[in-house]
Amino acid sequence: MWDELTPILSKKNRVICIDLLGHGKTDCLGYVHTMELMAEAVTAVLKHLKIRRSTFVGHSMGGYVALAFAEENPDALKGLCLMNSTASADTPEKQQNRDRAILAVKQNHKSFIRMAIVNLFRPKNRTLYADKIKKIRKDAQETPLQGIVAALEGMKIRNDREALLHFTPFKKMLVAGKKDPVLHYDTLVEQTQNTEVKLVTLPDGHMSHIENKDELLLNLTHFIEKI
Hints:
The chain is α/β, with parallel strands linked by helices. The chain is built from eleven helices and four strands. The protein has a single domain (2-225), classed as Rossmann fold (3-Layer(aba) Sandwich). 48% of the residues lie in helices and 11% in strands. The chain has a four-stranded parallel beta sheet, with helices on both faces. It starts with 5 loop residues before the first helix and ends with a helix.
């Protein structure tokens, strides 16, 4: 997914894109990938590359992992951007939705991927970005069933980390889609109140790196430059 952004961001920054557990070329480490376990994998990558401090940009689940990392390693972060992500835990209703998703994946994971990808976009954008959606679906089909289920299980039980938005020393930005079908925009706005988190509101859905690419890049580059 970062192919949309790295050509611009890499002009002035060293960009490292990590395949999280059970995704891309990274194998699974079990049947539940907690956000803490994924954060440990990120820590291992940074240690291997001898990177002591960095700025994180985490999209959706990547934001949850970034927060888990920040909780354990606050001094290792220069900045953190939560992109179409949230610091709160799953509500009971959301946890039930995760359970339904897990059941659907186990019944037919390729069908689940086809449905889930398109539902990340704002409805009016689904035809406009049909080619992009087709490519994302094709790439996502490579994710093994175990990887999808382990991620869903891990997200379902993740901790609430809203306190990190208030009491951490690094720069923070939250990118929210006004018409995000996954996350409630008003809830994200509430999270940033009485914090030093910069809130960036974009007009479309959960896939800001595609639906609002130019505005996102402008805000990301400005955020990184100011750190």
